[in-house]
Biotin and thiamin synthesis-associated domain-containing protein (Clostridium symbiosum), 472 residues
Amino acid sequence: MYNPSSNKAGEFISHEEIMETLAYAEANKNNEELIDKIIGKAKLKKGLNHREASVLLACEIPEKTAEIYELARQIKEDFYGNRIVMFAPLYLSNYCVNGCVYCPYHLKNKHIARKKLTQEEIRREVIALQDMGHKRLALETGEDPVNNPIEYVLESIKTIYGIKHKNGEIRRVNVNIAATTVENYRKLKDAGIGTYILFQETYHKESYEKLHPTGPKHDYCYHTEAMDRAMEGGIDDVGIGVLFGLELYRYEFAGLLMHAEHLEAVHGVGPHTISVPRIKKADDIDPSQFDNGIDDDIFEKIVACIRVAVPYTGMIISTRESKSCRERVLKLGVSQISGGSKTSVGGYAEEEPEEENSSQFDVSDNRTLDQVVHWLMDQGFIPSFCTACYREGRTGDRFMSLCKSGQIQNCCHPNALMTLKEYLEDYAAPDTREIGGKLIMKEIRNIPREKVREIVLKNLEEIEQGKRDFRF
Ligand code: SF4
Ligand code: SF4
């Protein structure tokens, strides 16, 4: 029985409810009156439930779809402005005891190079990332209690936060590790992590069990209830996502929104971010073995519908996606992207030799961080290296209430300009620096409060003189 407030995975992600939702959406995909009503509700910018959003995703009326896209653009503009937050993944270890059939790190893959970074190697990787200009990382490890115990992850986080190289520092470490216990989540919280990220992969239980035939990840309920344990362990900000291509996208879309509704119902705060990865080619993995791949048009529609359904939730895409695809979805709702990423264990400090390939997937966007920053600015976006909220204690419901009142905008915009200025001073190529400088001067005018504008101008000057880490 469907119950968003239940603590049982089978009840808050109810298969029957999803199937009914899909039937309802299919029956109404040309129902102009209903679609208008749902778009009208979405215009209030307070979100939609999974049924309403599923109707929009199924909508087959071209003019209505265009309206949904326009609304997504508007909501993106209202909540996130033209800022795009930058991050990079850091793979610590690809040892894994699970059997996920779509991931090259699965236990039975005997020809992929297995690696685990030592603390010294982590230091080198982090210095290389700092020298690119990164301030925000997403840590990734396979699940392996012997090779990657929680103590290893905690020690690595401590190492990362402790590295101060030139003007560089990692100011926010997000963590993407396997579902674990409340006690371990508490330890991660105490280590000062930003967001805890865990992808559901698929919400379809039967498919999930087939796609994860062996290892602890096989347990669908333990995996699906992980965010509840994370929140019980004190982690306020959690990031959810599915791997599009494993199951029917409409099923995943409804499941994703039901998961968000569940977190809101039980913990009073929905997910901090939603990621939208698509299955990619990798060692031992051929995406064509999965029947549910989605093309760029559908991907774009999913992004737009997520944007109107959960306006307050950040949306992330990675370098799995090509430059052209990233261009399309940035305008419709994506608020965070990675840049200059390596998906191998190590590889930032030193290029990995071909025969030692340890990548989790092929990267489609191979540009450097500076090229990505340049490209974003060419399109009128402000690349932001801001990490202020969690460092100012603005997490969980505190963050969400600021977001819902629109007040967060007073922080995001000035912080974006000041952190971009740091980047330009310390890491940018001359032409990037030049267009960035102009962009900052233009965007300062868009800070509504005069007092804030004055502080930002003063801080920008101080950044030029060598001071760092100003924030609102
Ligand atoms: Fe291991 Fe994660 Fe890959 Fe599964 S998806 S094999 S858990 S690293
Ligand atoms: Fe993100 Fe907060 Fe910075 Fe805005 S102020 S960009 S919400 S960390």
